Recover the amino acids of this structure.
């Protein structure tokens, strides 16, 4: 028998935003640690690509747009009781203050903040969490540990979800349910390549990282695995920086 306090053996874990980047890596790594994963996102083709890379059996995939209430209802109806929930789906839009508009702000808050709140709430209401379940939120260093030019909408959405995570951790502790967040710096995913980001900007930005590189999606997935596993049984309400030292 091999000793592994980080094992997710048999733990049923729902991962949102699993068709790309951090969510995809988290789904694959969780399956390697023994979890039965339920993956969800909007894009069927990319979700299938994730599904094909899962190890083991008993996994499930559900196409859903988390901002559509009917999709959220269908998702909740389709899932069994969960040992873990990773609220990971998210978007970014970089705009200087004077160009902020209601449409973009509502869109960012909808996906990054409201959706994890309501998905978590519905799972509670429908008794979808097992005893000792662990909920992990994909937050960011942005808005919580540091700020950067043009990212006020994104940073407020992430600061808000971190605040919700701490309140939920206190409120759900008596049920044995833990809530934590991971707070990554720049991670090499499609998200950071959207928008106006030149090679020169990237090179200068990487210089600000003491470890002189951006992170890989798996490096966040490993932090999420720790928070989902029994190794973190006494950890709740924590914001775990995974940032190559950029906030030092
Ligand atoms: N990459 C970074 O540097 C970084 C740093 C800090 C925090 N984060 C956070 O980490 C999380 C994952 O980011 P990532 O870099 O992996 O981004 P990504 O590669 O762009 O993936 C985002 C995921 O969210 C899903 N998604 C977006 N809108 C959705 C919606 N309305 N309904 C359902 N799913 C939706 C996308 O799936 P579909 O398009 O298939 O729906 C996709 O799977 C985000 O919350 C992000 O803010 C990322």
């Amino acid at each position: 028998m091999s000793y592994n306090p980080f094992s997710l053996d048999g733990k049923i874990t729902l991962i949102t935003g699993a068709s790309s980047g951090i969510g995809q890596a988290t789904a694959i790594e969780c399956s390697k640690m023994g979890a039965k994963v339920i993956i969800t996102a909007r894009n069927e083709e990319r979700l299938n690509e994730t599904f094909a890379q899962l190890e083991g059996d008993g996994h499930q995939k559900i196409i859903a747009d988390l901002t559509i209430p009917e999709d959220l209802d269908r998702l909740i109806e389709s899932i069994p009781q969960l040992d873990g929930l990773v609220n990971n789906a998210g978007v970014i839009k970089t705009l200087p203050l004077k160009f902020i508009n209601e449409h973009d702000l509502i869109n960012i808050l909808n996906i990054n903040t409201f959706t994890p709140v309501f998905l978590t709430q519905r799972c509670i209401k429908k008794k979808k969490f097992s005893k000792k379940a662990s909920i992990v939120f994909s937050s960011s260093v942005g808005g919580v540990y540091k700020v950067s030019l043009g990212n006020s909408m994104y940073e407020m959405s992430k600061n808000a979800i971190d605040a919700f995570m701490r309140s939920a951790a206190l409120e759900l502790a008596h049920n044995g349910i833990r809530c934590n967040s991971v707070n990554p710096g720049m991670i090499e995913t499609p998200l950071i390549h959207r928008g106006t980001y030149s090679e020169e900007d990237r090179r200068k930005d990487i210089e600000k990282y003491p470890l002189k590189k951006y992170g890989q999606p798996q490096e966040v997935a490993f932090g999420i695995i720790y928070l989902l596993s029994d190794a973190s049984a006494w950890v709740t309400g924590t914001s775990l920086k995974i940032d190559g030292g950029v906030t030092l």
The two ends are 40 Å apart (CA to CA). Residues 16-23, 41-43, 46, 65-67, 88-91, 111, 138, 140, 184, 186-187, 189-192 surround NAP (CB under 6 Å). The CA atoms of residues 63 and 154 lie 25 Å apart. The helical segments are 21-32, 44-52, 69-78, 102-125, 152-172, 199-207, 217-228.
